[in-house]
Write a structure and sequence with these properties.
five-stranded antiparallel beta sheet; 15% strand; 30% helix; Extracellular Endonuclease, Chain A; 289 residues; alpha+beta
């Protein structure tokens, strides 16, 4: 998977000057960013076709999995599920320059590229018992206040139980950062796949008395040939077993041409989840130190 550093284009499109957030746009209470700044930040996500194509080439060099609505940013890509009003997956590039310390900039808000019916809203999370969980972590986007603030769009949020959002999901993000510090050219992607969720974000039903779970997944692929990556990093079982397992996973997720090193994170781990955790702890983590 080639990983070429590319300079980011400056925001010089004249058409952005006239852009404004839609009248229904929402900024949730508690935002630490001035609304005037958020208006400017919102303009930055309205890309030209050439800029969108460049973002896709950068963050999805092996091709784009099937997606109902793709929302390209210069710094990451979101595949958005219009029915559930959540991201299906997000792909982004991670470099050491992104991992520096930065002040948290809470700026939860609607994505200006979505209509009111397509977007989750601030009230959807009130009293739901779910965290507003980043798919692309804000702490991986520290190159500027604008880039970090633009990870707070609801189009980048998955309703996650606190035990997942602050536990397994955060652990997966830490694994990705460890990989970046160990290698010069990694690829990182984090995803969320909806299982069931009883609130408006998922299906418009009442939140009362309902439960839901998410599966957390992470990809870390070095710049190397597919077979070399398998031998080097996925050493659990025979090569044939590993290839077969990844192929079945790819077919199940409908993510042809994308390779995943997967951990499932749920409140109650299954046997497969525990097996994957053991594999990561025994084989992957020691090689990253």
């Amino acid at each position: 998977m080639p990983w070429l550093a590319r300079s980011r284009p400056l925001l010089v499109l004249g058409l952005l000057v006239a852009f404004a957030s839609p009248a229904w746009a929402e900024v949730c209470n508690g935002s630490k960013v001035k609304k005037a700044d958020l208006t400017v930040y919102d303009q930055a996500v309205v890309l030209s076709q050439a800029e969108s194509d460049q973002a896709i080439q950068t963050h999805l060099p092996y091709g784009t999995p099937q997606c109902p609505k793709l929302l390209p940013h210069r710094e990451y890509i979101v595949c958005y599920d219009l029915d559930h009003r959540v991201p299906r997956w997000a792909a982004y590039t991670l470099t050491s320059a992104d991992l520096g310390p930065a002040r948290r900039l809470d700026a939860f808000r609607t994505d200006p590229r979505l209509t009111t019916d397509e977007s989750a809203h601030c009230d959807d999370y009130k009293g739901s018992g779910y965290d507003r969980g980043h798919n692309v972590p804000r702490c991986d986007m520290n190159r500027s206040p604008m880039v970090q603030a633009n990870t707070y769009f609801f189009s980048n949020m998955s309703p996650q139980r606190p035990v997942l959002n602050r536990g397994m999901w955060r652990w997966l993000e830490d694994v990705a950062k460890t990989a970046e510090r160990a290698y010069t050219e990694p690829r990182v992607s984090t995803m969320a796949a909806v299982q069931s969720l009883g609130n408006r974000v998922a299906d418009g039903a009442s939140r009362a008395g309902t439960t839901g779970d998410w599966s957390a997944q992470a990809e870390r692929v070095r710049s190397m040939r597919y077979e070399d990556w398998l031998r080097d990093k996925v050493v659990y079982g025979t090569p044939d077993t590993v290839v077969d397992r990844l192929q079945r996973l790819r077919e199940e997720l409908d993510l042809t041409q994308i390779l995943y090193e997967v951990n499932y994170g749920r409140q109650i781990p299954s046997a497969l989840q525990l097996e994957n955790l053991r594999m990561i702890n025994e084989y992957v983590i020691p090689q990253l130190k």
